[in-house]
């Protein structure tokens, strides 16, 4: 898909990986629609894009809320036009061990709230936004691409029952949607990042960062731009669908 003047919606687009995607795709001619729950961060992100000469729009959304998602996508269509692409990037962490015990007594457990919050945003949000984007693409009568952001943690990672389950399910959605939506000219792919240099990793102690990077064959964290490049590849390659790009520096958990 050629990106010139294409409206690409990016959830979690106000900062981090989402913003890097918006900037990268915008420089290729796309018109990013940044969707995020944080209005201030959205306005700041869109302002920076405008200063770089990139046409973009800001749209507040709670991806876990059906009515909010429907309204946000309606606003995108009214402001910029129907979406041609969607990057399902919004996500949260609520890490905890399933159970933590000492001397045969369980002291802590992952709460249902911790489980449900992550599933609501990282999985249900992908479903709601994917459904809305596919509807717009079909009714607009043009081709489209949905890119779901999974994670290296989809293979399972200690302390992340909720996150790993959601990110594994996102890959299953990717494969399923690729089969269902191909008849409408819609491709669906996924990117599974490894450990990327973001605000979250920047706040970690140096010894923890050293431990994190020690297992990466390339001996460094990835950059947000690396993930943006992977997303751009899926959008551009018209024979890519139903598959996952693993961008993790060769790391295996």
Give the secondary structure arrangement, pairings included:
Layout (H helix, E strand, L loop, with lengths): L6 E5 L4 H12 L3 E6 L2 H13 L5 E4 L5 H14 L5 E4 L10 E4 L2 E5 L2 H29 L3 E6 L11 H21 L4 E8 L5 H4 L3 H9 L9 H13 L7 E4 L6
Parallel strand pairs: 1-2, 1-4, 2-3, 4-7, 7-8, 8-9
Antiparallel strand pairs: 5-6
Helix pairs in contact: 1-8, 3-4, 4-5
Comma- or semicolon-separated keywords:
alpha/beta
The main sheet orders its strands as 3-2-1-4-7-8-9
Largest sheet, if any? 7 strands, parallel
Strand pairing plus helix content: what structural class?
alpha/beta
Given as residue ranges, the uncertain stretches (5+ residues, pLDDT < 50) are none
Estimated radius of gyration:
18 Å
Strand coverage percent: 15-25%
State the share of residues found in helices, binned by percent: 40-55%
Annotation field: number of helices: 8
Distance between the termini: 33 Å
Helix-strand sequence: EHEHEHEEEHEHEHHHE
The total count of strands amounts to 9
Task: Categorize the overall geometry.
Answer: globular
Average pLDDT over all residues: 96
Please, could you describe this protein's structure?
The protein is an alpha/beta fold. The protein is built from 8 helices and 9 strands. Strands 3-2-1-4-7-8-9 form a 7-stranded parallel beta sheet, with helices on both faces. Helix 1 (16-27) crosses helix 8, helix 3 runs parallel beside helix 4 (112-140) and helix 4 (112-140) runs parallel beside helix 5. The protein is globular, with a radius of gyration of 18 Å.
């Amino acid at each position: 898909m050629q990106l010139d003047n294409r409206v690409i919606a990016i959830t979690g687009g106000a900062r981090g990986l989402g913003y890097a995607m918006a900037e990268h795709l915008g420089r290729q001619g796309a018109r990013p629609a940044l969707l995020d729950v944080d209005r201030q961060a959205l306005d700041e992100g869109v302002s920076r894009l405008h200063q770089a000469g990139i046409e973009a729009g800001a749209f507040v959304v709670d991806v876990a809320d059906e009515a909010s998602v429907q309204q946000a996508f309606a606003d995108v269509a009214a402001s910029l036009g129907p979406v041609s692409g969607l990057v399902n990037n919004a996500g949260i962490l609520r890490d905890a061990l399933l159970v933590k015990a000492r001397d045969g007594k369980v002291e802590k457990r992952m709460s249902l709230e911790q489980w449900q919050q992550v599933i609501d945003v990282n999985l249900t949000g992908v479903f709601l936004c994917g459904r809305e984007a596919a509807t717009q693409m079909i009714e607009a009568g043009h081709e489209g691409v949905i890119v779901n952001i999974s994670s290296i943690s989809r293979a399972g990672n200690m302390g992340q029952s909720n996150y790993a389950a959601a990110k594994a399910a996102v890959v299953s959605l990717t494969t399923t949607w690729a089969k269902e939506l191909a008849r409408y000219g819609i491709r669906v792919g996924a990117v599974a990042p490894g450990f990327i240099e973001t605000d979250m990793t920047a706040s970690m102690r140096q010894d923890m960062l050293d431990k994190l990077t020690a297992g990466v064959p390339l001996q460094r964290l990835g950059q947000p731009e690396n993930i943006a490049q992977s997303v751009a590849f899926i959008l551009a390659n018209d024979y890519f669908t139903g598959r996952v790009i693993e961008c993790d520096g060769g790391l295996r958990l």
